[in-house]
Amino acid sequence: MGAMAGDEAIVYQHISLVGNEGIWTKTLKAKTNLHMTVMNRCLKALEQRQLVKAVKNVKYPTRKTYMLFGLKPSVELTGGPWFNDNELDVGFIEGLLQAVYTFIEKKVLWPTSRTDKYPSLSDIRRFIHTSGLTEVKLEEEHVQSLLEVLVFDGKVESLPGAGGVYRALRRESYASGLTEVPCGLCEVFDFCAPKGPVNARDCTYYDEWLL
């Protein structure tokens, strides 16, 4: 790192203490008791030596924030996966919401007591990662926030289960008795016949639904 002038060392020390949360220049000035001109000169020198860097804060875009050069800004600073270049990525969010809803909607409607048949938070997170929808790594808290939006919009509901499971809510205008049994959404329904390879008598899904 090399030798630093006294004022530069003071500025560097205070920046290092905040880690990846960063520090606002106004706060930095108050902590160092340095004149703004002196502090700005120190910051410029530290930046040129790639010891510190200025980062944008999505919550306070007009505030100039500094942190150590080698650190990755915290989610509080960057806004997490929902922001791109410090702007809310509405298209990305809407695409994920639709994909998650479609994934949940395709599940057969079992009685609400059969929570083991519905996708959990972990199942939905795994689907997002394996589907190639995004290269951004989403933590469970991020997926949870997507599900909360879908619940608020009345598209899915949360059922009690191991960590919570989810099922899609159909519009009443499309609801019928058939949609409440596996037959209504069965992918091999066209092949179902009394004496065929697929039939109601030997249907595993139907037997499980009745339990």
Automatic annotation (TrEMBL):
GO terms for cellular component: cytoplasm; nucleoplasm; RNA polymerase III complex. Gene3D superfamilies: Winged helix-like DNA-binding domain superfamily/Winged helix DNA-binding domain. The keyword Heme does not apply. It is found in: Nucleus. Its main location: nucleus. GO terms for biological process: transcription by RNA polymerase III. Belongs to the eukaryotic RPC34/RPC39 RNA polymerase subunit family. This is RNA polymerase Rpc34. Keywords: DNA-directed RNA polymerase, Nucleus, Transcription. It comes from Calocera cornea HHB12733. The lineage of its organism: Eukaryota, Fungi, Dikarya, Basidiomycota, Agaricomycotina.
